[in-house]
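Hi D.,

Good news: the full-assembly prediction came through. Inputs first.
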Amino acid sequence: MVKKLPKIILAILIFLLAWWAIAAISDSPLFPTPWTTFKALWKILKSPTSWGHIGASTYRVVVGTAIGSVFGAILGLSTKYSSFMATAVKVVIYPLLQSVPTICWALIFVLWFGLSDTTPILAIASAVAPFFMINIWEGLKELDSNLVEMASVYTKSRSRILGKVIMPMLYPYIFAATRSSMMVAWKVVILGEIFGSASGMGYMLSIAYGSYRIEQVFAWTLAFAIILIIFDYGIFKYIDRKFIRKWKPQEA
Amino acid sequence: METSGSVILEVKNISHSFENLKVLEKISFEVHGSEVVCILGPSGCGKTTLLRIIAGLISGAQGSVKINGLETINESTNWQDIGVVFQEPRLLPWRDAFDNVTLPFELAGKKPSEADSRLAKKALEMVNLSDFESSYPYQLSGGMRQRVSLARALVTNPRILLMDEPLTGLDVSTREELQEEIIRIWRERKMSLLWVTHDPEEAVFMADRVIVLSKRPTNIKTVFPIDLPRPRSRSSEGFLNTEKTLRQLLS
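Then the structure:
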């Protein structure tokens, strides 16, 4: 990371320069310069209400992903234990969740639950559940049946073998699913909040959009991107290194 | 070695088929307390299947298996009575050596106590891995991994160890080193060993008695006692002659 720092800074500088150049050439109020955007971003970050909205979105992302993960994981695991569930999940539930656009779910949930936390949370849950199903199937396919046999020397309890042997084998897969889910969840939450909520970053975006404050639209977008990067590179990379890679040979 | 003590393992009339293919046909034998019995057979003869039936890992066999007087066929064994070492170490890669050795306690549904931790430390000491308690499997060599797996099998102080070609994947020098160490551990612990192998030399080095199996449908061709004094020297005339006899019996 430290070694890459000069490259990262250079990339950011080039990006800002390109942005500034386009803004200068277009010379339009519809394309604010980096400077105007950063001023707007600074204003947003200074205001406690903004943090309330950022917090609301984060809360929905975390809760929605949690619900989606439990739902997806249970359905994914059930395919190992019941042939009926294997067919039901693989042929009906998974394709259904996978193919229906998230915006359709969001619309349905707005009709059912109105402007509330529930709408974006459920939209996220239904968008991320397939990630967990598919990753758990991948994990189950790779499952080392020799380890399961070894464990059954000491117990015939399926739940203990699940807890001590099978689930830990699946953790890297669940982790990978969580990581990609979070990225999707952040995108879904903005969408869900734009027309299904009275708070959150998506709501603030739609207000800025509605009042033609384009520099605020840019600023919120930028804030959103920064949060996403912090989540992915900060939190997930850290967990990955600390817990998942600990028992695997480190790649250089 | 006298076959002193009571019968630890009693196998009676074991038959088993996979679909229509008869694999084992009426196999009966006994293993006594602190006795080393090798099951020697050509590859594919079903000796691993036999061991798995005894370990309670395969159900659907006919006959009777008693470990320590308890009927275990098609049922769960008493987890403390047996330890199994497989051909592969079968360690959980996300646990270090110590946590792999305490796994049997956790699988049996108890939180490892102080005493259990001491047993685990002792088992690792016994296989000469005291300095590697917190190493992960990927950091260990093949021979060391198999030692951890041996420690895991020893940790419950089992009455009998079931060994399924445990040294087959290792190079010759590691194999001979481990054979000697297992004999040393066996002398300290006085448990019984039931050891499946296809290697006559290994059988001569380890066993008090060798059960030679025939090809399918497998049954017992002969039971061959080995009276060579321990420690056994691989180059002694008695050793080489016995090995030759076993080789002939096998073919």
